[in-house]
Amino acid sequence: MTNGVQQALALLGQVLVEPGDVVAVEDPGYPPARRAFEAARATVVPVPVDEHGIVVERLPQQAAAVYVTPAHQFPLGVRMSLARRTALLEWADAAGAAVVEDDYDTDFRYGARPIDPLHVLDRSGRVVYVGSFSKSMLPTLRVGYCVAPADLLDALRRARFVADWHGPTATQLALAGFIDEGRLATHVRRMRREYELRRDRISMVLDRVFRPHLRPIPTAAGLHLAVTCDGVTHDTVAGWLAECAKDGVALQAIGDFALGDVAPGIMFGFGGIPLDRIDEGLRRLRRVIGSS
Amino acid sequence: MTNGVQQALALLGQVLVEPGDVVAVEDPGYPPARRAFEAARATVVPVPVDEHGIVVERLPQQAAAVYVTPAHQFPLGVRMSLARRTALLEWADAAGAAVVEDDYDTDFRYGARPIDPLHVLDRSGRVVYVGSFSKSMLPTLRVGYCVAPADLLDALRRARFVADWHGPTATQLALAGFIDEGRLATHVRRMRREYELRRDRISMVLDRVFRPHLRPIPTAAGLHLAVTCDGVTHDTVAGWLAECAKDGVALQAIGDFALGDVAPGIMFGFGGIPLDRIDEGLRRLRRVIGSS
Hints:
Two copies of one chain form a homodimer.
Chain A: H1 4-16, E1 22-27, H2 31-39, E2 43-50, E3 53-54, E4 65-68, H3 82-95, E5 98-102, H4 118-121, E6 127-132, E7 144-147, H5 150-164, H6 169-180, H7 183-210, E8 214-216, E9 224-229, H8 234-246, E10 252-253, E11 265-269, H9 278-290
């Protein structure tokens, strides 16, 4: 158990990385993960993502670790294909790399049949699986977890002892009770229906009103979806979102999550917006784009 | 707010120490603090402690930091004198060192008038004060704190973001309410009376039954007291305590907290033992010593 996914990533940085080691990350990707490896003095190498997930042939030949979000890529929302997962594990064997698999929000899956996570497909003990209750329950709960190969456990326990000993016991006991009584499952089922309605509403309005400016990237899970913005620059998108922010609509530019050359786009997070306020937010975005 | 004192120490290690920097620690001292600085690749230098606290003239000339427990030295229980506090701050100015002041258990003070903590005496912005609710409330709460000079705050916030973002909000809000309603103060008052009874009982039995083998070190605060064991070796003390452990009596050897040459001794923690079981535990210790 860790204080959210972030602590798992920070501890893994300490345990997996020697200063100067290469760590590959998805680009665009999740900046706090990158920072955890940078704090361990890794050389972070961005690797492109396509509609099947991280582009394995673009990975470096040697690396201490690769950080991926296969179930629901952050921020693009794509799911890593089975073929790509297999290729990634083969690369990891050849490169001698650990694979950090962050499954941060796929308690919420909409229709699509699940693909086995990397840590299930793994035959070499290379995959560390991290996740949290931040999305299924509350971010402020600060309860995450890390399922690590046996040969990493001692080092992780030592690093955790130095970092803060352990998490708050009362929170963990309360959560364990909540799970044992079946109440987390009920909560997730109810919220999945709610989140699916939000996702469907955003997708429908994007399809109907925003084409061809914004092209939704198909997504079947989680609490956000992304669009590609064709024919405009990152600066244009940043300008739109700055205007939206003034108007009370918080959206994030894909460019903000990128180290290298990625397509301009927007990420729509819908974990915090009620269904009946979605149209209004998107109308404001439409107005901003229309007047630009 | 930190996850206990330990997280504050780990973050301070990251922020204050470059690999190879010297960090001075009390000897005997608190091993988890030492480990936090070692994890930051500090060269840890042990410095003796006498009845007035850390021996300032034995401190190294240059250091990135010194870690001290002035209010109730861990594990010896002595209190740092005002003269020694002043000398320590003068040394810190000359050495260019930060002073990490760990005030881990002096919510419980028995009679003695308080001496200003280093962070109050500090005129140069060198002192970082850390503490926690582990002793005044519960160790499993994992709520500590760190009062740092302004010029360290940005670096500490960045390190905290990487480490785990922040602590669990619900715990902090509950604790804030508990404090605001005056219930923590009531709890501390009640527990202080209880702990003082335990300390007095242990001191009395030690004085009456164990002289001249064990010589109590005067202490006026906290949840433990220590004795010096005259005329025996560390190995002898370790042997006694191993026998006691078999008999269900958990005591710690001062030698276990030492890096250098310290007097053999025993630390008696009384945070967890009810008053009416103290005599029985000490009888068992007496039996072990008598038969050795």
